[in-house]
Amino acid sequence: MSASSLSSPAFSPEELRATSEELLDAPAERVLAWVERRFGARAAIASSFGAEDMVLIDLARAHAPSVRLFSLDTGRLPPETYEVMDVVRRRYGVEIETFFPERARVEALESTKGYFSFKQSIEERKECCGIRKVEPLKRALAGREAWVTGLRREQSVTRTEVQAIEADVTHGLLKVNPLARWTSREVWAYIKAHGVPYNALHDRGYPSIGCAPCTRAVKPYEDERAGRWWWESPDNRECGLHVKR
């Protein structure tokens, strides 16, 4: 998304354009410090507790301490994800606001279509993601003015245009991606240099971690998100949380 196409209720188009240009190549620390000044607790980090998100959480403690932290618990996360979530609570002394899918919708989906309907087609998979992720995200973002993500351009072909500052017109707020320009090597260098905790699945060949049935380890020659919905084309491997409309 170009700066000229940005629009958000919280900003004028001119302010959004100027801010996007100002922070285009800014270090993650500077971007987070700007979020702290501009939004404080009205912003939140959306975390699935992968490597990028752990870097964001660590950086935010120093540069954006007022920014909230939330997670979407789909009901199908691997146990290793819950383990690192508990480590985050203890180490950083933060509350993790957790949002679950609506019980009735999950019950109806599993009762009528079984437990692996998402493997039948892209439409079926998007239905499952819509129930377990997209709808809870709407509730998680309600009343906020900005959300912070760990999206990086290097992650996949669907994320090559990610900018540090973007307008999320779907949810009517600002989307901030402080690590947009970071490489995987930089993420892991930061984790090791600062002793940041991380999901144990990363050591077992999982560079990207989502729901357990939809995530596998990747081979050395595969891209970072090849293990997510691996039965689909790479062009479709988004759950709907970060699809631009």
Automatic annotation (TrEMBL):
Query: Where, by residue number, does the polypeptide cross the bilayer?
Result: none
Q: Which SUPFAM superfamilies does the entry mention?
A: Adenine nucleotide alpha hydrolases-like
One GO MF annotation is: 4 iron, 4 sulfur cluster binding
Necessary cofactors? [4Fe-4S] cluster
Where the protein is mainly located, per its record? cytoplasm
Catalysed transformations (reactions): [thioredoxin]-disulfide + sulfite + AMP + 2 H(+) = adenosine 5'-phosphosulfate + [thioredoxin]-dithiol
Give the NCBIfam families listed for this entry: APS_reductase, cysH, PRK02090.1
What is the protein's given name?
Adenosine 5'-phosphosulfate reductase
Name of the gene encoding the protein in the UniProt record: cysH
